[in-house]
Write a structure and sequence with these properties.
The chain has about 230 residues and is an alpha+beta fold. The protein has one domain (about 45-225): outer membrane lipoprotein receptor (LolB), chain A (Clam). It is built from four helices and 13 strands.
Length: about 230
């Protein structure tokens, strides 16, 4: 019985203490400092509309429409999910405080809104943490590694010619999110694949329908949100 308990404990420790992918630090110090970090992130306020397919356990759910308004300067996010017919299933915005305006099943769980906002920020905003390492991964990808204030790690890597990959790890090194931005001539957000590692793993395939820069409209939208 003790032997079985030790095996279970060892397995749990192995899962909770995974290590981050090794970054080649054999580069000269000057080369490491001059290595430019991949930066596919927004530089100005934008509204983006994506068609979204959800996949779980190999099954593909029906397509939905995702609308995102994002301002990288203030890290303001407004998002909505709607059916192809125009019915709004979920709507929320967040800056200092998360405000859920509408949430119909199955988008009404306690964690859904916060996870969605976090995923949007991971895709469209540069990490807020400090760069802890930069260099080359084993497969040749150029990478910069950030550590956030909460201890989580974010790797932003660029592979030629595939595109850019963003990975978020827990403070223990467990992979939580993997985002692939396929390189296109039109827009880095033309095709996005997000894989989530949760109790039940799932993936989102996002295809860009429309994208437009915002300025005055965004200020009006924020003002409306503050009044509500």
């Amino acid at each position: 019985m003790k032997r079985i308990a030790l095996l279970i404990l060892s397995a749990l420790l192995f899962v909770s203490c995974r290590t981050l992918p090794a970054i080649n630090s054999a580069l000269p110090q000057a080369a490491q400092k001059s290595l430019t970090c991949p930066s596919p992130f927004l530089k100005e306020p934008y509204r983006l509309v994506h068609g979204i397919e959800t996949r779980m356990a190999g099954d593909t759910a029906g397509a939905i429409i995702g609308i995102t308004v994002a301002d990288p300067a203030t890290r303001f996010v407004s998002c909505a999910i709607m059916t192809a017919e125009g019915m709004v299933l979920f709507e929320a915005d967040a800056q200092a405080v998360l405000k859920v305006k509408r949430a119909l099943p199955p988008f009404d769980s306690n964690d859904f809104a916060q996870n969605m906002i976090n995923d949007i920020k991971l895709i469209f905003f540069a990490p807020e943490g400090k760069i802890k390492a930069r260099g080359i991964l084993a497969d040749g990808a150029r990478v910069c590694r950030y550590q956030e204030e909460n201890g989580e790690w974010i790797d932003v890597a660029e592979r030629q010619p595939e595109g850019i990959e963003i990975k978020k790890y827990s403070s223990y090194g467990n992979l939580k999110r993997q985002i692939k931005l396929n390189r296109t001539a039109e827009n880095p957000y033309q095709n996005i694949e997000l894989q989530a590692k949760e109790l039940f793993d799932y993936s989102l395939l996002m295809t860009l329908i429309e994208a437009e820069p915002l300025e005055g409209e965004l200020k009006t939208e924020k003002a409306k949100g503050d009044e509500e």
